[in-house]
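[job 4471] stage=fold_predict status=RUNNING
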Amino acid sequence: MKIIFLSRYSSKLSSIQLGLSSLITGVVSVLLLVSGVSLWTGFEFGQTYDRQAQGLSAEAIQSIFSQERRELDDLQARTQEHLDALALRMGSLQAHVLRLDALGERLTQLGKLDNGEFDFDEEPPLGGRSGAEGADQGQTAPDLLRDLERLAGLIEDRERKLSILEDLIMNRKLQREVYPAGRPVKSGWISSYYGKRTDPFTGKKAMHKGVDFAGRMGSDVIAVAAGVVTRVGAQAGYGELVEIHHGNGYATRYAHNTKVLVNEGERVTQGQTIANMGSSGRSTGPHVHFEVLRNGRTVNPARYVQASR
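[job 4471] inference complete, writing C-alpha cells
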C-alpha cells in the first residue's frame, strides 16, 4: 500500500510505502488506544458516580436517623404526659377514698351501725375462682386505664349512695331544726293572740293572723327554726318585716322591727337573732307580730310557740 502526502509549502510529492502487516498493526494500535481511553473515561465516571451515590446514601441515612430520633422524643414526651395525667387521676381517686372513709366513719357513728359490718378501715373482702385457664397475664396500659375508669365510677356511685344515707340519718335532726317551735323573743309577754279581735285602730272586729309579743324596744327577735330568709324590709301594715322559709311547707314572719339584721337569701339557724324589736308599721308600741304559715296559709302559732325541742 502506498500513501502519498501533499503539502502547500512544497511542490514535491512525498509517499510512504506500507505493507499489509504494517497497516493492520496501525489499525489495531489505534483501536487499542481508543478502547483504552474509553475504558479510562468509564472508570473515572463510575468512580465519580459511586462517590456521589455514597454521599447521597449517607445523607439519606442521617435524615432517617434524625427523623427516628424526633419520633422517639415525641413518643417519650407523650408517654410522660400520659403518666402525669395518670398520677393526677390516681391522686384524685385517693382523695375520694379518704373522703369516703371519713364519711363512712361518721355514718357508722350517727347511725349506730356495727363497726364489723361497715368498717372503712379494712379493705373490702374479695374472692372467687380464677377467671381463665393457664398462666396469668400482666395488665396492659389500656386495661389499666379501663380499671381506673371503673374504679372512678364505683367511687362516685358509693359517694352518691353514702350521701343519700347521710341525708336520711341527718333528716331526723334536720326535721327538728326546721320545725317551728318556741317563742320568737328571748324575753317578753303575749299581748295579743291569734283569731278575731277588736282592731286597736278602727275599734271593729278583725282577724288577727298572728301572736303579738310585747317587750323592750330594741330587744332581740330570734328565729324559731332554721331556714332561708326570703323577704326583708318595709311591708304595708307589717313595717320592717323578716320572712323565713323552713322547708316542708313551713314559713314564719316577724313584723314591726326597728332594725333587721339579716339579708334575703341568708341561711339562719334556730335561735339566731334576726332583728331588733320595734314599733314600725301599723303598731301601737314595741312588739313583734309573729306569724306561722303552712303551705302558704297562716295557722294559729300557739301550738308552735308551746312546742319544745
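[job 4471] summary: The mean pLDDT is 75.
[job 4471] exit 0
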